[in-house]
Amino acid sequence: xxxxxxxxxxxxxxxxxxxxxxxxxxxxxxxxxxxxxxxxxxxxxxxxxxxxxxxxxxxxxxxxxxxxxxxxxxxxxxxxxxxxxxxxxxxxxxxxxxxxxxxxxxxxxxxxxxxxxxxxxxxxxxxxxxxxxxxxxxxxxxxxxxxxxxxxxxxxxxxxxxxxxxxxxxxxxxxxxxxxxxxxxxxxxxxxxxxxxxxxxxxxxxxxxxxxxxxxxxxxxxxxxxxxxxxxxxxxxxxxxxxxxxxxxxxxxxxxxxxxxxxxxxxxxxxxxxxxxxxxxxxxxxxxxxxxxxxxxxxxxxxxxxxxxxxxxxxxxxxxxxxxxxxxxxxxxxxxxxxxxxxxxxxxxxxxxxxxxxxxxxxxxxxxxxxxxxxxxxxxxxxxxxxxxxxxxxxxxxxxxxxxxxxxxxxxxxxxxxxxxxxxxxxxxxxxxxxxxxxxxxxxxxxxxxxxxxxxxxxxxxxxxxxxxxxxxxxxxxxxxxxxxxxxxxx
Length: 491
Fold this sequence. Notes:
By secondary structure, the chain is α+β, with helices and mostly antiparallel strands. The protein has helices at residues 48-66, 108-114, 120-127, 136-146, 150-155, 164-172, 182-185, 200-205, 244-251, 309-317, 328-334, 372-398, 415-425, 437-449, 472-489; strands at 4-10, 14-20, 26-33, 37-38, 44-46, 73-80, 86-89, 99-100, 159-162, 179-181, 191-192, 197-198, 215-217, 225-226, 236-243, 260-264, 268-275, 286-293, 296-305, 342-344, 362-364, 404-408, 428-432, 463-466.
């Protein structure tokens, strides 16, 4: 009997294949990294073909090592890195350029140029998003302006424009399915979150046509069939597609209004479920769709951070201050508690709630006694401060206080960071037993659609709890020091 659910979590750093049994338990995981292509100009790119081939390889490896029969796989769920923009040939499926990664701010000048002729509030009122090079719309425009003959070929309707989810669905189905889901569509800055459709005016503003874009489907619908190019004996349905952060929100069981989660990856996505109606922010976060399932949508407030886990990578690879991410926990704990160093990781500008793409990174507050441990601790704490900034903005928009933050992602293994997050937020932090909430959310959505799981699947999850223990005066001083450091680098 086919009662296993396969999930592909295609993230910024690599591709994971995950296998869940009929209880929703993760039974096997395989990973494969892909190249981070950074040009002399600082442009950040991925090779779409490498990502697709890695997807096939990692699923093949999973099937070989899991001991589960190919015939026992009931369906596939996909979660994906969002806002990364791709263009490919409609007939051959061949990429027409390297993918522009969500982190890449190369379309900054396009956004600044647009502000001279377009009121950014028109874009925000339609999409819930602030005009920014972070989102795919301006990245698509950059590709049309800078890749030879791309504009002409687009006009001949020879090309597909999409995010990573659409790319994988297209290739996995042999080009028979050109679809995206509502969660990914809502992050493109081309989707009207009120009308729930591609917006003609926005497409025109960014030099696109709405019919060039993929069909939008419910997040738990059938996106097509795949056998992973002959790996499986028979095709299985791709029965969910969700942006990775949306998948994590779903996997965390944040299904009710006010429930909030943070995913710590290369960057971080913080989401608050706002229910059936959109809430438009006045405090620097954005409005999107959580998902659409069974024809019904849920909205969210979201704030995105460019550098969270990537700060630890920077400490290791660029600064040589650590040899592994794991050692940061003890180093931070051993640092001088009286040191007041702040690290602002604005290596590609600052995201929510500041949205300053011109801001540059800084280390401030150093004394003669500041050393390696204090800088490493400041790097860890910068993650917690950024998450707290976003959540406080959301609470101001919703006029609420969150009783709990549900978290996931690799950095949540760091006990120092999680305790600091609880302390600086003054709220409980609930750390999922497993880190792979993005893929698990996609798997749960697929399994629910296929009847493998029931709604009580979310109640079976185990988690560790952190509670605040920092004195209020200390918390206030630390946060004010952080805000002062941020103010100094804002353009």
